[in-house]
Queue: 2 jobs
Job 1
Amino acid sequence: MSWGEVDTGLTPAVGAETGRRLDARRVLLLLGFVIVLLSGVRWITAAPDLTSSGTYGAALRLAVPILLAALGGLYSERTGVANIGLEGMMILGTWFGAWGGWQFGATWGVLLGILGGTAGALVHAVATVSFGVNQIVSGVAINLLAAGVARFLSVVAFTGAGGGATQSPQVTSTLPRITVPVLAGGSFFGWESPDVLGWLERQHWFLVSDVSAMFRGFMVSLSILTVITLLLVPVTYLFLWRTRLGLRMRSAGENPWAAESLGVRVYTMKYIGVLISGALSGLAGAFLVMETAGIYREGQTGGRGFIGLAAMIFGNWRPTGALAASGLFGYTDALNLRSDPAVHALVLVAAIALVGLGAWYLYRRRFIGGSVALVLGVLAFVWFALTDSIPRQFVFITPYVATLIVLAVASQRLRMPTYDGITFRKGEQIS
Amino acid sequence: MKRWRTRLLWLLVPVSAIVLAVAVSSLVLLSIGESPVDAFRSMFRYGTQANSVASMINRAVPLFVAGLAVAIGFKMNLFNIGVEGQYRIATLLAAAAGAAVTLPAPLHIAFIMLVAMVVGAAWASIAGVLKVKRGVHEVVSTIMLNSIATGLVAYLLANHLRKPAAGSELLIATPQIPPSGQLGPLTQLGGEDLRSFLLLAIVLGVAVYVLIWRTRFGYDLRASGINPDAARVSGVDPNKMIMRTMLLSGAIAGLIGMSDLFGFFHAYTLDVPTGIGFDGIAVALVGLNHPVGIAIAALVFGWVDRAAQILDLQGVPKEVIIITKGVIIFSVVIAYEIVRRLVLSQEVKTAAEETRRLEEEKETVAA
Amino acid sequence: MAERAPAVELKGITKTFPGVVANDDVNLAVQPSEIHAVVGENGAGKSTLMKILYGMLRPDSGTILMDGHEVHFRSPKDAIAAGIGMVHQHFMLATNFTVLENVVLGSEPAHAGALDFGRARARIRELSESHGVPLDPDRLTEDLAVGERQRVEIVKVLFRGARILILDEPTAVLVPQEVVELFGQLRELKEQGVTIIFISHKLDEVLEIADSITVIRGGHTVKTVKPEDVTARQLAELMVGSDLPIPETRESTVTEEVLLSVQGLGVRVGERWALEDATFDIHHGEVVGIAGVEGNGQRELIEALIGLRKPDTGTVVLAGTDMTEWSTRRRRENGLGYIPEDRQGRGLLLPSPLWENTMLGHQTLYPFARGPWINKKGARQQTEHLIHEYGVMTPGPDTSALALSGGNQQKLIVGREMTAAPKVLIAAQPTRGIDVGAQAAVWELIREARALGLALLLISADLEELIGLSDTLYVILRGRLVAEVDPAAVTPEELGSYMTGATKAGAA
């Protein structure tokens, strides 16, 4: 499975024959196990941040840009255009979001951020769709160009005005936030309501408190952009799978020649897909500025465009999958920021999970995978036991390692759009 | 089609790129109220000084090596974006290893280079294994590995490989490499050292050319990039080819930092330049994945970087050249596509005409 | 009966591509509610003509008339709107889509942008029932068999209210029984007033189903005839314009020596056995043919023999040496040749010069390599030799492979494999998609090589070719070799019924 290679049958068809596809029930079961595991380890290691509402809240907040990038990538790849340039489009989103927010206010910041990302996407679309440039080459070039443009514009716009070449002045305007009343202590027309879930969380009861914390985390100080992003998940599903335009867009990625023969404007579909991916990446960038940092800083995106791609792949190019994957990545990102003991505890979680996975593999007679998982699990446990904390630099790389692990585990069970990454030229038939 | 006409069409690629780049940069400069003519003129004057030439070449050498590393991957349809991480970790470990031993001069240099190549190859092999065994696309995995390498380098440098601080010294660096592991300058141009690694880089370029275009391995590599199915059927083992290409690409990537290490820094410090890996991708693209093109592209980029430094002194943001470079990249890849298609369709046309002529000849002979 | 205007008329159509005149003043008149066949060999211009009629191409000159009125098509959408529907030879289906999604794409019933699944489903069921084309709208296209996928293509055009159907080589992928079913459906459609244009080069089928036949050769219309007035032979002569090649095999050249021995070869793909217990021998000087509908294990068999896929059971012995564990390269170096069925996808490096293509598959051996170096001079010389010996029409050894026509590409591939003097040659669909002249040339080459002792495994869907060339003929069905038939005695119909399992025989 690879961009630019069609399954020619020389390798077994992915997904169809290599085992059952991940379905909703198994995913929920898995999720249940994970929650129990986390609660247990939290209890054992007394690292409350492993499952605190603060962590979950941060996880949600950090998942948003990843999810937006993943959804953006989804739109693009479903029309058959691989978009590695999401990172660059996000960078443009951060820059224009900060500039707009600083100059005109938060709402304008968001809108300009979206426009910035879309502009980057336009370049990508023109290069790949109209000129047939290799999609990965174009994506990489977009990333280079976007970083350069952001740097240049910073020098021009921010130096001498409170910022500099690598950061903007503070953006003081902010977006509205919601906190759910009663359950999470939000104010309701001026009345400070009780914080039921918060109280439950503070009891530190095994599992009950953890679950309460999780729900509370999703209800405190929710940005309106977060709500919009979450709504985009079902909207994307409905749009791509239940509307006429969505069907045509997907046909551009599944068989553009068939679509062309039926009168579908394939180039237009691809443009739409790529532009939407730029808009969503731009929104992600604007979100990073408005909600997380309040400022534009060079390197702010930190590879989230690529992590979003990984989330899209792991989510099997489906919106719900992207949501789950982004949640996972957001969680590791959040722990990263929150506390060292929590990251240390996460190693124990990983150890137990690996040992469990190894036992499961061995039970199903997959000896190589099983032994590898077991050995890794034991090593992780030893590492946990022998150390008190994880060095800062290792904490920094957690999301990237997590991405690699996720991709390594999941890549072979997935089904990408059939002609994703293949250059389509109007009127040329593959013989 | 006449050969010279084909050559002319191909020339259109770099020419159009430069024209477009200059045009766009001028527009950008105008939009911020600067004069493009003045900017270019001072760039030219500064950039053609003797010491600028030396600086240009010094900058170009690591770019050239980076371009080679990336291009090898591109030729095999492998996108080794991880060149950045590979060279950083390779440079660190090579510097540390070089400082830890003392060998007679040529051996010491060779040793350091060897360590760099091995480390670079090893780091790249992670992405290779992931691709071969788990089907992970190398673009995402190498990008992740870049960030992981950054963290790893920071950790190792801060905790294990650092030279003991003397007194109140705040410098974080590996210990100095002894003189037998250093390379003096080739010569001086206008007072600026011309670093000697240039010669090794030229040798490397020739070696890569010969490897890719003149050996069986190179044929297999290129065939795998053009048509992986046909290559498999012809006997190429795809997994072995992927691993070998990644290892080769990573090994060459490891050498990116050598010019600066041997000729200037003699240790891994926080000042060691970063970002060359990404620029190397640009250079490979602009150089159309051929050592000669890459050399030219590296020189162009090196010159632009150097000449632009004068702009700061004139109050013009030198970052405008980043946009220049970006436009060059895009113009080159787009122009390449257009020209390629034009040339191919011409070739098909000519071949078809020739074929008809031959068939008619055959028929008249048979009659 | 009064002279009605033809349903479709193409007058004076001319279309050129760079270097090629595809259609030269072509005329075609199709009466309403008739099945009109358009025949010609590959490259005669039939496909181009139909693409023009379907709006995918614009003619350089000429007119298209429907019911006597002139029409202009700027894109397939215009043609569809005018009631023309095309069922392509290579199915235009998205395998990841359901039948419904494939059928409605581009003409979706919708409410304000949202797909109306109910209406779509109802209409598809209605069409499939009334026309005898059974289909389940919610099945994934990937799960459908070849014949079923063709039904999707037919319903696709009916869904758009096509009154004129163009079928491009519809029986290319079907066996005789499925062809019978298809013809039944076509007659049914004719009853309902649908006009059918049927493109084919299978003359016996054309004579059976068509009301009227137009022959095209070299881009010109040769003649329009009625099936009752001609024989297949006469039609063929009109098509080719000269003598017909017949793949006859002369006396047997089979010897005792076994060059390839396959024992119990099996390949498992997921849960099922794609190839099971394949056992056969190929002797020095023997052509062993394997007949079967595409997708019955031929691909897995070839991959196991070439070394692309590790078999789960069985052995492969080449000239006495067990090569079951060998890599592809080792097999190629030791005398296993391969003519792939997909010449562009698996046999050529299209953008590369011909001499680099001549090396492909033999790049580690002299004269193409010397030690670790490639020998460009040797490769060019060898290429020039091939060009002369095998009649490859090209300006020279430096031309890019994609500049050659399909027939010349195939000649190059056949030449390069034969020149390497393999012990065993696997030929998969060696004459697919090439013109009759090249086809005859390839058959002759195979016969010559066979006489010199080559052991050849011929895997083909061309029954004529199999019957004509094979010394021994097996039938493969669902991964097993289910029958061995005598090529001298079997008819295409019998062979076809073995291929679909309609007749069972003792296992080979």
Note: Chain A touches chain C through 30 residues (CB under 8 Å).
Job 2
Amino acid sequence: MTDDRSALSREDVIHVARLARLDLSDEEVELFTAQLRTVLDHADDVASLDLSHLEPSSHPIALANVLRPDEPRPSLDRAEVLAVAPSVEDHRFRVPRIGGEAL
Amino acid sequence: MTPTAVSLAAEVRAGQRSARDVVDEALATVDAGDGQYHAFLSLMPDEARAAADAVDAAVAAGRDPGPLAGVPVALKDNLCTRGAVTTCGSRILEGWRPPYDATVVTALRRSGAIALGKANMDEFAMGSSTENSAFGATRNPRDITKVPGGSSGGSAAAVAAGFTPLGIGSDTGGSIRQPAALCGVVGMKPTYGRVSRYGLVAFASSLDQIGPFATTVEDAALLFDVLAGHDPLDSTSLPSQPEATVATVHDGVEGVRVGLCRDLVDGCSPDVVARVREAADALAGAGAKVEEVSVPEFGYGLSAYYLIAPAEASSNLARYDGVRYGLRVNAEDVAAMNTATRTAGFGAEVKRRIMLGTYALSAGYYDAYYAQAQRVRTLVMQAFDRAYSSYDVLLGATAPTTAFDVGAKVDDPMAMYMNDVCTIPSNLSGHPALSVPFGGGEDGLPVGVQVLAPALQEALLFRVAQVIEDGAP
């Protein structure tokens, strides 16, 4: 696993940006590659520790599922919610076509 | 000198001064003075005056107007305010009016406090200088050539400038405590789960916590008591009922075991180290037992944080897709619209963190980075437990230096991240911690001393901080 670290390349940055739905200019790819490499280099101090004896902690407190009675109650006002939407049609969020579908 | 929240609320509650008068004066003061600081992104004059009138009506009718009656508060702009613009300092939420209030906003209203406006912040709370706001930086009221710290720099500056006695911020890696230190005010991060996060726009959900800014420890305790409590709308909200802290603020530190933590002062500038040691002396003089302690595991906190927080952020910020609210940049299909919207709507630091987090979570790197960072989190939590078996509180610096020059670190993310090195451990562990002003640095700018305590020990935290405040030069 240690071989994978700090090998962040331009291609990695382009790939990650695509996963995150971000478009980067060539200059941004250069800049972000250098900057993210610096952060990941700093993270080498923890990536190289042997902590195999410890369990990972996702939260500071133990989380328990929270349940409530399944009873109808008021929720957000539809008109108020749709009033701040970028595009609305027929009481729904309107979006451009999805993938190659013809709508 | 602006009056404290305690004295202002007492006047309003006694009918000696109307809340409306307090609010009108506060709005006028911001109008006249905020051009040079840019603490606020927007004001809520109509809502504030209506809330003030409600307080005055309660007083006139002989009803209890609440413990913070008529006290103006600056809200960080990542707290949802129904019908009032909430931007998180981001173009992607420019002009967005939430359809609901954050639980803390409701709690403030019930307490008689008046939300005066929305305070500037680093975009989505990512930053340590409030220079990452899409709507322009905030300046430090103590010296406008300096940053106020961040990410809650607007709330800290509003309190430091005397615009509002109280402010609310959020603290994911130090975003309340560090700006409090740099602006010379009190700032406190409660125990994770003690204050509801419902209506706080999420950055890193396992680290985020809402907390108070004030000019005095007692005011901070009063505001914390209003904010704290169980909320069924937040699944991480602690079910236990909090105890009031304000009543015991002045109880002193006789017999309290204080660990002066070398790892939270090493590497700080000499003037900051000197102030922390003097604060320790003040505690010893008041009867605390002070010893030096080393918790070397804290040294790994920064690296772990800058993997965990971006990983959670990359997931949380996936919701900004241009579909339901906020910015939309049109394109031929949904995927292209998502990309165009996010590319135009997010600033550079937010993009950096989203990419860093996406990378840390991606196939092939998950174990090396994200899972490993979570193990470091366990390591830090165990180190805290060990320290707290010998000490009741820990003491250290809040920030490595006093406020730095505007522009000094914007092009060097790692240098900016280093500001959080002393504050991050308490976010990883979920423990409460606060920053209290204690004298100045060689440049005359404020120094903050940080007090850290075990989970749910907020009352003790405030008691210790009060002694430091009383002993400040």
Note: The helical segments of chain A are 10-19, 26-42, 44-47, 78-83.
